[in-house]
Each structure stands twice: as structure tokens, then as C-alpha cells.
Amino acid sequence: MLKQERRKYPRDIVVTTIDYAFSESIHEEVHEAAKRAVTVNVSNSGLCLYLFSPVREGQEIKLYASFFPEHCKCATVRWVKKISSDLFKVGLMCKE
User: Fold this and answer.
1) What predicted TM-score, i.e. pTM, was given to this entire model?
2) Do the Cβ atoms of 14 and 39 come closer than 8 Å?
3) Which residue segments constitute the domains of the chain, with CATH numbers given?
4) Which of 73, 75, 79, 96 could pair with 92 as two cysteines, CB 3.0-4.6 Å apart?
């Protein structure tokens, strides 16, 4: 039996690197505050990516990627799965 899709928007597989900053460092210079992440997939409402720094659910992240819609430049961490000591798979929900 096929599992029914529960997502509101379809996910597009997009594998690329992007820069991000935690909300508490958004006002710092981008080149000093930015960290690197790797995207897994994106949709109109959020994205999944791999981070190399720990995050917590509810934390706000500023995304620096020109191909994201404007409403997705700031997102909230919805879930975190620790893969290893320095690798985290993270689901983000875009701010609307």
C-alpha cells in the first residue's frame, strides 16, 4: 500500500551549498557570521538541509541564497536529527 503524502507543498530535490546565520548573529557582518550548509530539498513552505553545527528546535536562521523566495530568507528549525558529532539533518519552516 502506498503511503499518502501529507505535505502541503511538493518537495523539489535541490542539492547545493548555501550560507546561513543564526538569528543572534544576523546583525554581524555576513562574512563573519555565516556558516555553510548543504540543501537536500526545498518547497514553498520549507527546506531540509545538512548543517555542520548543532541547532535546536525553534531556533531562527537567516538564509543567504538568491534562489529562495523572499519569504524563505528567514526560517525556523522544526526538527533536528543528529547524524554524527558534527553533522545534523535539519528541517526548516519558512517564515510567512
Assistant:
1) 0.78
2) yes
3) 12-94 (2.40.10.220)
4) 75
